[in-house]
Amino acid sequence: MSSSTTTRMPRAQRRSQLLNLATRVFTERGYHGTSMDDIAGAAGVTKPVLYQHFSSKETLYVEVIDIIADELLAGVRAIGDFEGETTGRVRYGLEQFFHLVSVQNSLRLFTGNEAISDAVHERAAKVLDQMAVQLADVLMASRRMSPTQSRVIGRGLLADTQTTALLLDTATDDAEREEILQVMTSYMVHGLTGFDPLENPQIGGSVLGADGTARTGADG
């Protein structure tokens, strides 16, 4: 090891350095592909030094989630600062979430597909709850709705956002990604009324169009 990597640091500074390096290594290799030896090596310290700051790999990983979460929550707050109409704001939010989880390589974690431990799952779930509350605040700043209504809708929008991120991640080209963004943006802004109903719907009852006109279904 070089003298620069073994220089003694104040405890708080060393801990911050280890967290930043762990975030980089975890996002590059994933939880199961990373060992404490890998992180210690990247930091230029011995494994006992690493364990002085973090009792286990799982404990360290949960703190890494917190670092990523801060960026995600800041991204949600930025949606409220977006200057434009509702459709543009929703699309911006979808793109922001996908960009953040892609850069941090944390898509599986924040879409519920990274099963590591109960502690990790609970922390990720808490982050998603916080994001839903932030979305609720954005909604209440522009719509007449109660706190309960905004929280329910916030959680629903977040679920749609997670689904969109998964679809964008598996899209084969820019054209498909653009179509996904357009479809999900329209759905989140207008619901099913954003899509023109058939002239003769093949379902019972009636189908409401975006203009408020109802078309009677086959059994109506």
UniProtKB/TrEMBL annotation:
The keyword Iron-sulfur does not apply. The keyword Lipid metabolism does not apply. Keywords: DNA-binding, Transcription, Transcription regulation. Residues 12-72 form the HTH tetR-type domain. One of its GO terms (biological process) is negative regulation of DNA-templated transcription. InterPro entries: DNA-bd_HTH_TetR-type_CS, Homeodomain-like_sf, HTH-type_TetR-like_transc_reg, HTH_TetR. Residues 35-54 bind DNA. It holds the Pfam family TetR_N. One of its GO terms (molecular function) is DNA-binding transcription factor activity. This is TetR family transcriptional regulator. The lineage of its organism: Bacteria, Bacillati, Actinomycetota, Actinomycetes, Micrococcales.
